[in-house]
Amino acid sequence: MHDNIEKIIVSQDEIQEIVARLGQQLREDYQGKNPIFICILKGAVMFMTDLVRAYDDFSEIEFMDVSSYGDELESSGEVKIIKDLDVPVKDRNIVIVEDIIDTGRTLDALIKLLTTRGAASVKICTLLSKPAHRILDVHVDYVGVEVPDEFLVGYGLDYRNQYRNLPYVGVLKPEVYA
User: Fold this and answer.
1) Catalytic residues
2) Which residue ranges does the record assign to the Phosphoribosyltransferase domain (predicted)?
3) Is the bond preceding residue 90 a cis peptide, omega within 30 degrees?
4) Mapping DSSP to helix (H, G, I), strand (E, B) and coil, where does residue 45 land?
């Protein structure tokens, strides 16, 4: 699996530093507010788990499975909710946790949905941001690091449901997916 990685973009140590920094920022911003952290499945699971531990204050966690990719390399542009929330969000502070923000389509749709459902606030926290690939201008409140427009895997990011368990984020060799 490691042999299929061209280069490491964000090391395991860098990820730990990012998670600690973002957890601290969120703790300062949401002290006493008991936010709901919404993990966008499956990619954000690793990041969300580490992030809520670093947050270290009262909070709730929820999960949504939302897709605009399927098994493809490019976003289809159609956002599908595969698994919705189990709790109401009316009058709650929401933090959407993403592994990577690429085109912005998924987050744009989620922000509109949660706002329509009456959330008190909706903020975005992402480990990775790929601004070169952005189609919709979505405001991201908490960004771990900006990354180049390359095919990334690891720490939750996948190619055909593989590579999620890498402890770092790396560039997948083109011959693997060509």
Assistant:
1) 102
2) 11-160
3) no
4) helix
